[in-house]
TrEMBL record:
The modification 4-aspartylphosphate is found at D67. GO terms for biological process: phosphorelay signal transduction system. The keyword Secreted does not apply. Keywords: Phosphoprotein, TPR repeat. This is Tetratricopeptide repeat protein. TPR repeats lie at residues 240-273, 454-487.
């Protein structure tokens, strides 16, 4: 086999541009010398993340050789994450992570953003030439395909893949994987699944199994997708993409606790993926598992320190979660959570000081924190400073508006809160997601612990009703309504119980009067509310009984 390098007359290194990122000057100079001896010429050296990203912003780089540990500040994973996010690397560019560290946490974290390879220190010329030479050879062979993908000309990229398959059998795996991805991008599920089935018929490859499960999810074959992903994880427990897709499949099945468990398992293997921590925090909060949510938001905030994905929303979510946990409880642990929430808001105000409205968002949450710790006077004082800023709805984001209404409810300003939400609903009448959040807040304008209690009583009531225990059902629903009297579904649930009881009661009129009182409580229920059709059906039924 011919030697790769300048002496053979074949110099694949020479035509490419290189960026070496390392905080030690001696290593940078050593790498430059080794690259030059391999035939490279266009080599840039930088010591840290900021100049590296800046250089890639204004210059095309073919090969990045980046040390993982760059001292204080951003590391190699953060650089790769930012370059991928900003699309500063072409498909044909190579990114090699250079490291003396081989911990699982480091490797798993870096692998989330798909480096093209790893080089372990110490590095010598022979190792560099062999490893990088092989990657450059593959890069050059596949360059026409990657160029078309960068241009988003997927049909042409598919055509080139099909042409190359018989000519370049050594790259068959890459070509088949790329074909499956391209068909999926175009929405051609039939061809995509055929690619994966052809691969799996010859050999069990994790990426092909994942691709097939992805298509099953897209085709709404949720059971088959979830089953396939569980099997994939069992055989490849370090395959992070499978956990993410499994969580998505379980969510679509409505199995949110199991989706949360899937992400928690993934995080045990790879704890440094910010977006997965964020996803876990959101899932845990929807499952009312606020302890897990606070831990995941805390980790998200920490990971964001040097990440391109850092956001004030993460700080707001953490402080909101801690506020919910501490509300109505002055025990030492709750007081500590309240103080942590205030500290997080202070850090957020400094970190995102140039962001419009950040101080207002912070003060809204501070109101709830103080009120939850019994400091009502302090809460009202802060609330007075923000009310004027919410008078004009046009400048308010839906999240900020919902948070403000939540604070009004918590401080006992029910009328103001409801009026504000009606105005907010009119402004976002065409957005079903926001309307659903407004409904949820109107139904349950109470603290986290009260909400949990009401939901538990509602579940108990439904279980009792389904088993024919009508008295127990009526008692559970009544207790829940004492906590959240405006909850539409609970009111309707209790009406159904009373109607059922009236069928065998010697005094049905008393029960029907109770039904009429409950139904009148929902007279202002908006038509877009998800319980509206059920409300109108029960109201008509009661009106028919009047006659």
């Amino acid at each position: 086999m011919a030697e790769i390098g300048p002496r053979s007359g074949i110099n694949p290194f020479g035509k490419l541009s290189y960026l070496v990122i390392d905080d030690f000057e001696s290593f940078r100079l050593s790498m430059r010398q080794m690259l030059r001896s391999c035939g490279a010429d266009n080599i840039e050296l930088v010591s840290h993340a900021a100049p590296a990203v800046q250089y890639c912003t204004y210059n095309h780089v073919d090969v990045v050789l980046c040390d993982y540990n760059l001292g204080e500040g951003r590391n190699g994973q953060h650089i790769l994450e930012e370059l991928r996010h900003k699309k500063l690397l072409r498909r044909s560019s190579l990114f090699l992570m250079v490291t003396a560290e081989t911990s699982k946490e480091m490797v798993m974290g870096a692998r989330e953003y798909q480096p093209d390879g790893y080089l372990t220190k110490p590095i010598n010329r022979a190792m560099l030439e062999k490893r990088l030479g092989s990657l450059i050879e593959q890069r050059n062979a596949l360059l026409p395909i990657n160029r078309e993908i960068d241009r988003e000309n997927y049909p042409e990229a598919i055509s080139l893949c099909l042409q190359m398959l018989p000519k370049q059998p050594r790259y068959k795996t890459w070509l088949m994987k790329t074909l499956g991805d391209l068909y999926f991008q175009l929405g051609d599920m039939a061809h995509a699944i055929k690619v994966y089935d052809d691969v799996l018929a010859q050999r069990e490859l994790s990426w092909a199994r994942l691709g097939k499960c992805k298509i099953l999810l897209a085709n709404r074959s949720y059971d088959d997708a979830v089953r396939g992903l569980r099997e994939l994880i069992e055989s490849h427990p370090d395959y992070m993409e499978a956990y993410d897709l499994l969580a998505e499949g379980l969510k679509r099945q409505g199995r949110l606790p199991q989706a949360q468990q899937a992400l928690q398992k993934a995080i045990e293997h790879s704890p440094n993926a910010l977006l997965r921590q964020k996803h876990l925090a959101e899932l845990a909060a929807s499952n009312q598992d606020m302890d897990t949510a606070s831990d995941a938001w805390r980790r998200t905030v920490d990971l964001g320190t040097y990440s391109i994905h850092d956001s004030s929303e993460h700080y707001l979510a953490l402080s909101q979660t801690l506020s919910d946990l501490s509300e109505g409880n002055t025990e030492p642990e709750s007081a500590s959570q309240a103080n942590e929430a205030l500290s997080i808001l202070g850090k957020m105000e400094k970190r995102f000081s140039n962001e419009d409205g950040i101080e207002t968002r912070s003060r809204v949450i501070q109101c709830r924190i103080h009120a939850g710790q019994g400091r009502q006077q302090e809460a009202e004082k802060i609330l007075a400073t923000v009310k004027g800023e919410f008078n004009s709805l046009e400048d308010i984001s839906p999240d900020a508006g919902l948070d403000y209404a939540k604070t009004l409810f918590r401080l006992g300003h029910q009328g103001e809160a409801k009026s504000f939400l009606v105005d907010l609903a009119q402004r976002f009448a065409a957005n079903p997601d926001i309307l659903a959040k407004i409904e949820a807040l109107l139904d349950e304008p109470v603290g986290f612990r009260q909400k949990l209690q009401a939901r538990t009583l509602n579940r108990d009531g439904i279980k009792a009703f389904e088993s024919g225990q009508l008295d127990a059902a009526a008692q559970a629903f009544s207790k829940a309504l004492s906590i959240v009297p405006d909850h539409a579904a609970l009111n309707l649930n209790l009406i159904q119980v009373y109607l059922k009881q009236s069928e065998s009661s010697p005094t049905p009129g008393t029960l029907l009067d109770k039904c009429r009182q409950l139904i009148s409580h929902l007279d202002t229920l908006p038509e877009q509310h998800r319980q509206y059709r059920r409300y109108t059906a029960l109201r008509r039924k009661l009106e028919g009984m009047n006659r």
